[in-house]
Design goal:
Collagenase (Catalytic Domain); single chain; two-stranded parallel ribbon; about 250 residues
Amino acid sequence: VLDSGQLPSVLPGPGNATPTALNTMISSLNAAFKKICVQFLNCSTVYIPHHPFNNWTKNLIDPIVTSNWYTTKTINVYFVDQVSGQPANEVGGYAYPPPPNLTTNAKDVIVLTKGSLNGTNAVGTLNHNIIHQFGHFFGLPNTFDEIGSPITPAPPPGVLNYEFFNRTNCYTQGDGFCDTEADCWPLNAPPPSLTSPCGYYRFPGMLDGNNEFYVPPVDNMMSNWGCRCRFSQEQYNYMAYIILTRRLYLH
């Protein structure tokens, strides 16, 4: 864990990578990944003294910091004040995906905003943004991503993937998993004023390419909905596969 900011002894307020906050993060990760027998430990904490790194840009700051503060065969997690340049629709940070094969050098980096530490959502899931990025690190796409090519009938303009509600194409479109519902994000996302974003309340609803209503996975950890609290079984299976075939070098 690397924190680009002042030492906790100087500024121990909220939003810093304090020992207590980091221990809570590790506990949240261990609870989320317990089903596939994955355990996390904080090997060390480094406080990077160059405060401008707190305004992190992926294409500029990332190569500078990771070339100077980086431990091989370890998940390097960087906490900063602000992150820009991350992939579209990613909130609060980004993670490098697993390498495509064992001969390709991996970059074991996850960058997160300090505000992600101990952040909770509408259902009380602690550190949900952090768990989401660890899902990406172990190969999971967002539930609204598209792994395939465009097909017909197409979804409504603005929907990012071509998976149907009835899941007849769930292994070839969308996120490639059949136990995650077709996701119409960012269309029909709840407005910020909605007090409980855990149900899909929009009326009229959103129709897919087959004129069937979407029922998006508002509780899935790889969605961008407000109730993230779980991975699906197929997502767990895929992460376990990636760990065994692409990330087994990690300490």
